Each structure stands twice: as structure tokens, then as C-alpha cells.
Amino acid sequence: MFRCTFYDYFCALKIVKGMNTIILGIESSCDDTSAAVIRNGYLLSNVVASQAVHEAYGGVVPELASRAHQQNIVPVVHEALRRAGVTKEELSAVAFTRGPGLMGSLLVGVSFAKGFARSLGIPMVDVNHLNGHVLAHFIQVEGEETEQPEFPFLCLLVSGGNSQIILVKAYNDMEILGQTIDDAAGEAIDKCSKVMGLGYPGGPIIDRLARQGNPKAYTFSKPHIPGLDYSFSGLKTSFLYSLKNWLKEDPDFIAHHQTDLAASLEATVVDILMEKLRKAAKQCGIRQVAVAGGVSANNGLRNAFREHAAKYGWKIFIPKFSYTTDNAAMIAIAGYFKYLDKQYCPMDAPAYSRVALE
Fold first, then answer.
1. Are 161 and 304 found together in one domain?
2. What is the DSSP letter of 219?
3. Residues 314 and 254 in one domain
């Protein structure tokens, strides 16, 4: 039997009375604490606090990440509301990343969202982090309106943890057509960067060096995976063993050939990604193609999208750099759509570390 609590009644009352739909988004899935405010689909603020502490370890340390989130969450939310010119009493709902991600990091955002929403008597909206990346293409800023994809469209979601080709039929109807069976593209780049001793995170470093190098200087192994799935473990192994052989002949090989190595690695990753994406576009008969996720900031991948648009007649959608990495703006816009459909989240909903697209 359905039971309507006072909390439920109060939330419904505020929804009826509210003229504007104002969503506070909270993102804490990994090592960035972020809060954003969206009003009627338009972004008012997007604040991100990054954690430099992980650079010394060559990767994200979960315990340190969760502690930093605890320190950052309150000031980040306060700053997002201040920049938006919105008081907490004006909020219609709180949207938050429920998963996937690091459990300790997620719990900070989820717990804050629950307490904040309950104290204000407003609904909560849980957002799948991966859906948020895809829906980042629907963020609008007043005076800077951009064209949005029309359903259905294809989206290549590439990050440190995911490499997927997604058929997006609606904001709440997405189908994974292909995905990595081992390493993700961003993970492979980071690990190859680490082998070269370039530091963490490796993606931006490889991207910067690749602009100065020759993408055809070296050849690395490409996988032969059936269908639309990806694999990057073979590339990583090929890069490692090639590097070992070259270092035997020249101990300073990396220092002498950094830019060409970076450019060749980047070109190989991009070729693998685009080959399967072309196949998916042909199979589906779709020419509206988007890219999302942290690796979508890569200049080589962005240029490949532009080249494919010219060659194959694709209508492409490339996100602003600020929407490529983990950010609360994408969580807020995804939460906005769910809020309009009254898809609220119960107070006892737990965080989850692993999950596919909703």
C-alpha cells in the first residue's frame, strides 16, 4: 500500500507552487567535487573543485578522494548557489550522481544530497553518471544557445573508465551498441603515459605532446574484435613491448621521441574508436553523432569527428571542454529532465559503484 508521508506531501506542494524549475546538481563520483544550478534547462553556475593530491600517486587514491569531497562539498555548493544568484529556498529539487564511481566518493555526495533535500522539503533525483555525460549536449547557457542533437543519435562515450557506442533514442532510453571488453581508451592512454614517465593524468599530457609530433612515426597493434565492441589491452601491451625494444638500443629513446610516441599513440586510439563508430553509424543509418566523456577533450579525436563530418555527411556534436570531464552541470540537466517526468528518488536509495546505462 502506498503511504504518503509529510515529507512527500511537502515536496508535492512545493512542485505545484513553483513557477521556475531550479535544479541543484551534485557530482562526486571520483576526484572532482562539483555543484551546478540549472533553471528551466539553462545553466546558471557550474563549480568544480579538483584534487591535486592524487598526482603524487599516479592515480586516484579512493580514501584521499572521499576525504577531500567531505572538505569541498559544502563550500562548492555554497559557491554554486552564490554564482547562480539563487537561494536554497528557491530550489525545486536536488539531483545527484548515484553511480557508478568510487563508493567512498559517491557516499559523500549522496549523503549530502539526502540531508540537503530533506532539510528543504524538496525531491531528490538520482542520476546515472554515464547518462549525465551523454546529456551534457543538452546544457544551454543564456545568450550562448547551441544546437542540440535530435533523437535518435549516436554518442561515443570515452573516458578513463568507459568506451561505449550508445544509441540515444530519448533522454531516458539509451542502448549500448558496443563497449570495451577490457581497458577503456582513457585508461590505456594514462597507462602508456605512465610507462613513459610523463605523469598523471596522462591524457592531457599526451594530447599536448601529440600536437607537436608525427602520428605516423610508429605503428602499434590494433585489435580485431567482432561487432562493435572495443579492446585496448592489446594496444597497451604492444606499446609497452615496443618501448622496451627501443630502449635497449637507446636508453634515452623516450626523451628523444616523446612527441612522435604521443602522436602515434593518440592516432592509434582515435583510429580504433572511429572505425567502430563508422560501422555503427552505417548499421543504424544515423548521421547525427556526438562524443562525450573525458577523452572527448582530446584534440585528435575532435579533429577526427570534424573530418568524418566532412567525409560522411555526419552532423556532429562536440561538447565544450568544461563539460567533458566530471561536472555537476551534466548531472543537473539530466536531473532536470527526470524532474519534469516526476522521476524522484526515495530517501533510502543507496549509492552504487558499478552499473550500466539506465
1. yes
2. -
3. yes
CA 237 to chain centre: 26
What 8-state DSSP symbol labels residue 203? H
CA–CA distances in Å: residue 296 to residues 142, 181, 275:
24, 20, 16
Please report, as a single letter, which amino acid is at residue 111.
Answer: S
Question: In total, how many domains does the chain have?
Answer: 2
Average pLDDT of the segment spanning 132-138:
97
In tens, the pLDDT along 60-106 reads: 777 788 898 899 999 999 999 999 999 999 999 999 999 999 999 99
User: What sign does the dihedral 203-204-207-212 (CA atoms) show?
Assistant: negative
In the chain, count of helices (H) and strands (E)? 10, 10
Q: Are residues 267 and 334 in the same domain?
A: no
- Cell numbers 593530491 correspond to 53
Helix (H, G, I), strand (E, B) or coil at 18: coil
What residue numbers bound the domain in which 202 lies? 153-320
**Among 196, 188, 125, 127, which Cα is nearest to 158's?**
188
Q: What is the pTM of this model?
A: 0.90
Phi/psi at 151 (nearest 5 deg)? -75, 140
243 closest CA partner among 278, 198, 195, 289: 195
Pair 161, 127 in one domain: no
Domain annotation covers residue 355: no
The cell numbers describing 234, all together, are 592489446
Q: Please indicate, yes or no, if residue 259 is contained in any of the structural domains.
A: yes
Helix (H, G, I), strand (E, B) or coil at 325: coil
Copy the grid coordinates of residue 279: 560501422
The span from the CA of 102 to the CA of 242, in Å, is 33
